Amino acid sequence: MFTDKPHFWINYPMLYTLLRPLLFKLDPEAAHCVTFNAIEKARKLGLLNGAPFSCQPRKVMGLDFPNPIGLAAGLDKNGEHVDALAALGFGFIEIGTVTPRPQPGNPTPRIFRIPEANAIINRLGFNNHGVDKLIENIKQTDYRGILGINIGKNFDTPLEKATDDYLIGLRKVSRHASYVTINISSPNTRNLRQLQQSDALDELLSALKSEQAKLAEAHGKYTPLAVKIAPDLDELQIQSIAKLLLKHQMDGVIATNTTLSRVGIEHLPHAHETGGLSGAPLTRSATAVIRQLHHVLQGAMPIIGVGGIMTAADAQEKMEIGANLIQIYTGLIYRGPDLVREIAQVVCANRTMTI
Hints:
Layout: H1 12-23, H2 28-44, E1 58-60, E2 63-65, E3 69-71, H3 82-86, E4 92-98, E5 111-114, E6 119-122, H4 131-139, E7 146-151, H5 162-173, E8 179-183, H6 198-219, E9 225-229, H7 235-247, E10 252-255, E11 276-279, H8 283-297, E12 303-306, H9 312-320, E13 325-328, H10 330-335, H11 338-349
Parallel strand pairs: 3-4, 3-13, 4-7, 7-8, 8-9, 9-10, 10-12, 12-13
Antiparallel strand pairs: 1-2, 5-6, 6-11
């Protein structure tokens, strides 16, 4: 049963509500750093004392989740703030995207808020310190919950050699991750989404499943693999991807990444910026992909729903139409930690939700 007792020695949700107008006056990347610095200081001073909400625990991909609410990849690319993020009540945390070699990402500015639409456009381009640094950071964390690690390819790795980068990432993170996400759907690495096409995806998944089996035998630990797909897919493309996921016995699918669509926000400032759009304008299309995946997969593979979850109702809808777990990101930027609590309250109240 969910009990709405404080997860923090300080009322961080209320504090965020007060501070958000000030943070939104800063450049988005600067605000990101300021926010994490504040959380880390509070944690080190003993002002944060959080634990996962105990709410509809479930087994997904062979893993025991204390609740179905996760943090999507992208907020903590290098695994530098896992302990602080764990204090917000998440049932699981996903870090990355990380690449084999460090890379700076795309030129700044590269993040644009669209507050009129509760949305963000980003073209970060997998900026990260590299997989070795991420592993160093993980080794220093106290977190013992479910940790997903999202891997991608370096921007200058030719597409025909992309599989090599994913194999490097898998080999390095497998022992440290509860599960590994294969990111083939970011719109901010040139041609990356071509890996969602049938022949390329078939080759990639075959190589990854083979390596997964070898790593499991070598380390005595089976690490599930999930594939993260785009929202900008038609019905036939979704069916094709789903069939390949089943063919290669992938452990899960994450739907969805950010969108290239600008439908409904064309008139707003920054809408013309290139990059992936997240937030409220993504809600319907991400939900549509989950619904189609669920129809094709028929429960044969778990779905992690992400994209435009700005309220508890958004999370509930995604779970009712087929998502076993959900993740948030942009909703956390706009709503703060209270969104996690709000979703937990609604999920726990709905006993008919499929597990």
